[in-house]
Amino acid sequence: MKEYNLFDSLKLLLKDDVLALISEMEMVTVSSAVHNGGFGKAKAVLNVHVPDSYDQKLLHEHPEQIITEAAQKLGLNPQSSVGMITAADVNKFSMITTSKDNLTVSAIATAGCSLAETAGENIEVSLTPPGTINIIVAIDGNPTESCLLQAFITATEAKTASLRDLDVRSTYTGDLATGTITDSITIISTSKGPKVKYGGPASKLGRLVGYCTREAVKDAILKNGNINPTRSIWKRFSERKMPIEKLITEISKTSHANIPLEEITSKISKEPLFALTLMMAANIDEEIKMGLIPEEFGDINALSEKFARNFILVIRTEERPYHSIKVNSVNPNPYPFSKSILSQIIEETLTKISKL
């Protein structure tokens, strides 16, 4: 068992598969938790890990049962506890605390991204326990109810910002994720000190909530091991649902040289400039997909081809004649820049093969 002191009357307890914020005094809470969520008062907030062996049907139909059992094991009253559940490892939690003037905020997060999503997309769920992002924000202060709701929104925005910071993608569409399908947030306050009216991102309290939450969630995601900031471009493309290997094969076939897929991917992996430019092209293609096309771009197809031609001039640093083997033109949609760059990479590979 591990114990951490937060404020005067608050402590964080980590025991077995339960992370619990416990208070000697009653806390004011607003929560989206499955057990005792909504506005209320509580003496404990539990974040309970669901083991793989747990009955998934039971969990889906009666999620409060595992929370009640966990509270009783810790000697806590389930009725005065708020409870969240997660498949993420609670031992890999992250806690960030900061203060300003008479306010102190701590954000405690556990995070998994196995079922990341983008709000508004078509999602089909299963009973498989997801990698949930659960957040507890503890405020040593006295926010009003509306301020608590503002702080709840600020924490939600900060969570999404942390996903963007790490380029976490929706499992379903590959779009930038806004959360996972079963995230929970609980905001608590000690009700000490003068009334605080504002909790939005630009307020004093909101800045503390936003900073702590963003950093805690980001750190928890990294600790959980789902996301590596230095993961390969191939992993990044896979997360985006970008059919990069299919594009390479399609373009390579037009050259009539039958270059193996592995040879092209190896060339890209070994040449940082190729990888850099391909990543840039993929980012541009994503913005085009969303309709974010600056008017200065003009004809996208023509611009993508010009972009690729200039790229190939940059990599040919040695002043010597080349016998260019032209790859047949490929309809660039829906990945105009990526296809154009891949065409030039393949053409460059063919050119060098022809000189051997």
Protein architecture, described:
The structure is a single chain. The chain is built from 10 helices and 13 strands. A hairpin with a 2-residue loop joins strand 6 and strand 7 (103-110). The chain has helices spanning 56-61, 64-73, 145-165, 204-224, 233-239, 244-254, 261-270, 272-289, 300-315, 336-354, and strands at residues 2-5, 10-15, 18-31, 38-49, 81-86, 94-100, 103-110, 116-117, 134-140, 142-143, 179-180, 184-189, 195-196. Strands 1, 2, 3, 4, 5, 6, 7, 9 and 12 form a 9-stranded mixed beta sheet that branches.
**What overall form do the CA principal axes indicate?**
elongated
Structural Rg: 26 Å
- How many β-strand stretches? 13
The major pleated sheet works out as:
9 strands, mixed
Structural class based on helices, strands and sheet pairing: alpha+beta
Helix coverage percent: 25-40%
Poorly predicted residue ranges: 318-325
Strand content: 15-25%
Order of helices and strands: EEEEHHEEEEEEHEEEHHHHHHH
The first-to-last residue Cα distance is 66 Å
Number of helices: 10
Task: Please state the average pLDDT score.
Answer: 88
Identify the notable features of this structure and list them briefly.
356 residues; alpha+beta; 9-stranded mixed beta sheet; two-stranded antiparallel ribbon; 10 helices
Write the layout of secondary structure elements.
Layout: E1 2-5, E2 10-15, E3 18-31, E4 38-49, H1 56-61, H2 64-73, E5 81-86, E6 94-100, E7 103-110, E8 116-117, E9 134-140, E10 142-143, H3 145-165, E11 179-180, E12 184-189, E13 195-196, H4 204-224, H5 233-239, H6 244-254, H7 261-270, H8 272-289, H9 300-315, H10 336-354
Parallel strand pairs: 4-5, 9-12, 10-13
Antiparallel strand pairs: 1-2, 2-3, 3-4, 3-12, 6-7, 7-9, 8-11
Helix pairs in contact: 3-4, 6-10, 7-8, 8-10, 9-10
